[in-house]
Amino acid sequence: VGREITTLEGLQFDLATIATATNNFSPENKIGKGGFGEVYKGTLGDGRDIAVKRLSTSSTQGSIEFKNEILLIAKLQHRNLVALIGFCLEEQEKILIYEYVPNGSLDYFLFGGQQQKLSWSERYKIIEGTALGVLYLHEYSRFKVIHRDLKPSNILLDEHMNPKISDFGMARIVNIDQDRGNTSRIVGTYGYMSPEYAMLGKFSEKSDVFSFGVMVIEIVTGKRNANSYESNAKGLLSYVWRQWNDETLLTAVDPSIKEKYSQIEVIKCIQIGLLCVQENPNARPTMATVVSYLTRHSIELPFPQEPSFVLHGGGMDKNIVRHQQESSSGLSASSSNPFSVNDMSISTFYPR
């Protein structure tokens, strides 16, 4: 883990520097857009490439809260998190400056329709690195952070295809002795939300575990779960659960994986995914347990229970959809843009 940052000194950039870096926020430099603002690629005077997130002027957050948030996010340093380099607060502009991650999003590599598909070894590395990043947010960072919007478009890939989790930001601090909270504002994305969060607004580390499980299954199968709430649609989780019961899991593997792969690893990853998407949050493993499953070869995994959305006939429960639509002002729209940096997610920070 990196150095501890305690002041804003060295993090604040002036607007002129950022305008120069992005060619005055040129449309050619724009690499993403979400409900909280737009993202531009820029290059600083020292040659460093940066991603500049220009928050929408409709943001109601005051400058003191904004600076507090910057201090929190800047303290989160891990090789599997996108690093916050700094911020700009000037002339009504609120801007976050991140390291630039050159290969774009996992969403693009899984669902973007481009020719270059991920090998199995790359997929396993992405699953493992993402698990380590989420574990750091839950257990090892200065503040416990629940991301609340884990999905492939929020996993960026560096030049070596190492995953980096993005959009753990716009934080809300809650009491130290809580490990779960309630919210009236549902922030997340269809297909990745745990049922207790989507229906009741209850979130905990196990909400992130659920989202991680969906992503693992998507990485193995190359199929998207995000549309499984549509009427009469049989979701990806239902499909994979059926393959699990029929002991035909290898038929679910993404056919674009042409090279030889470890069948044991593939089956283990699907089993981990199914354990993470169980209906009962208490039955889901912690991220520490998930990491131990991924890194230890001799460990025996428990058998998963039926995934939650299968219990609603394969699609997402209509009450969940209605509840989400009523409170979806914060929802991120996923896209297959190679640099899809979507809505700023409302992560939750807990002082330790």
TrEMBL record:
Record SUPFAM superfamilies: Protein kinase-like (PK-like) (SSF56112)
Single biological process term from Gene Ontology: defense response to bacterium
TM region positions: none
Residues holding ATP: 53
GO MF, one annotated term: ATP binding
Membrane topology: Single-pass membrane protein
GO annotations of cellular component type: plasma membrane
Protein family according to the UniProt entry: Belongs to the protein kinase superfamily.
Protein name, UniProt field: Cysteine-rich receptor-like protein kinase 25-like protein
Record organism: Trifolium pratense (Red clover)
